Amino acid sequence: MALLNFRRREAARPANANLEAFLDGYSIEVMPRTAEKVDDFRALLPQGTRVYIAHIDGTPIDEMVATARRIAADGFDVMPHFPARIIKDAATLADWIARYQGEAGVTQALLLGGGISTPHGAFDNSMQLIETGLFDRAGFTRLHVAGHPEGNRDIDPNGGDRAVMEALRWKQAFSERTDAKMAMATQFAFDAAPIVAWADRLKAEGIALPIHIGIAGPAKLQTLIKFAIACGVGPSLKVLQKRAMDVTKLVLPYEPTDVLADLAAHKAAHPDCLIEQVHMFPLGGIKTAAQWVTDHAGQSGVSAAVSQSA
């Protein structure tokens, strides 16, 4: 064990100081079935890491709460998804909130529409969840909403972003009248330029919600292309397609080094940019994503277990 810890500390010597700073405080996403494959999150993640728990349609709430309880017990901030379209009614929402709080001490939530086309019940979007007042009455201290740097055809089926921007203005107004801290956790993208342009446009439009930019962790190229198409990733998909045409790179796993280095440089040059931190989608596995951050983020990426044994 001592040898393992030594190697992890030695690996945490980043060559890019901007990237180290940008990755500090990153968050990561898991699902109950992927969390089951991790023996000890403390051996992978820095202390205090925010861990989102994705709620896929069909996942029993018992499994969601059990995963939240386990990860919270290890000392991490837990943020479960509340997908509006899979929540039957206000009573169901109230039950979920009470269970997360009572069994896992949860006071944070990601509110989003959800990845299905037909709602299961009364809710269609995150704004309706907010309007119930249930999160406010339960004393939730942080509420995140979804962001879409490259648009969302589920919301704007004809292209463009009229409906998306209208929803963001509503959420901005709500953030100004609530005590809960708010931010946008975004869909992943593979090119910094569209992300920066989107962040600049939001700021010009009066949107001030901090952006937690979604980034796909290391994974096989074929895996990422499949997820990117399914999730509606737009202009930056060309980065993957170009890579797929290079035979020398086709068999190598994709790593988010370039896009993160570009975003880190932009953030260093423009500290008032809305992009606040990184949210990691571990599409190639939680351990792989966590180790990549450890190798590139210096002490900011060192796991809780390593920090305590140092």
TrEMBL record:
InterPro entries, alphabetized: FAD-linked_oxidoreductase-like
Domain of life: Bacteria
GO molecular function per UniProt: oxidoreductase activity
Keywords: Oxidoreductase
Name of this chain's protein: Methylenetetrahydrofolate reductase
Organism per entry: Pseudooceanicola pacificus
Biological classification of the source: Bacteria, Pseudomonadati, Pseudomonadota, Alphaproteobacteria, Rhodobacterales
